[in-house]
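Researcher: Re-running this chain for the archive, since the previous output was lost when a drive failed. Same request as before.
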Amino acid sequence: MTAAPDQRPPAPPAAPVPVLARAELETLRDGWLVRGRWSKADLWTATLPGGRRVVVKDFAGKPWLGRALGRFQLRREQRALAALAGLPGVPALVGVLDADGFAMERVEGTRLPKCSPEARRRALPEFARILAAAHAAGVVHNDLRGRENVLVAADGLSVAVIDWGGATFFPPGSWRRRLFFPWARRVDEGGFLKWKEQFAPEALTGPERDFLRRFRRWRRLWPFNRKGA
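Model: Regenerated structure tokens:
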């Protein structure tokens, strides 16, 4: 990737995440985005007093096994969002309802593949900046190839990366960061370069093309490849 690593000083310790009353928030619900299967979260929207719009990721209505799996996913996503607090282009963690759900900032935009060719090209540098800043904070998204996970505002400049449910947080200074982060971040870098190859192939550098070739060879060994082996 061509984006430079984020050079900002370390962020101060994050403030405790507010606890929201589920019963009260449910009275403010104004729509559904997704009704997930037994192991997938429901996503619903609400408007808080003062006009702030949020999306609630919720496993409360699932069977016990779905809730157990969901709680693991929710904790993982909350850790990632907390580590990225204040980063433009990442939804803010607004509050926790309970072990089965949390609320995050609602982000408006058009999915990257649905944008005009020119808007896609304009979005790439900001996309790269968000990714570099997330990596500087020790967070790997792990699913940037998902077509629904990158949103672009109408101006084509404001970009948001959403759905951090599969993200991995490598705390700065930890042994996991030293050993595994340099390899884990390549999943994100490969995902970003796939978008760049599709929308601005002439902008790919020689090293980026070499990286993509190596990345594709390794992906063939991954048993959960979206397109099969």
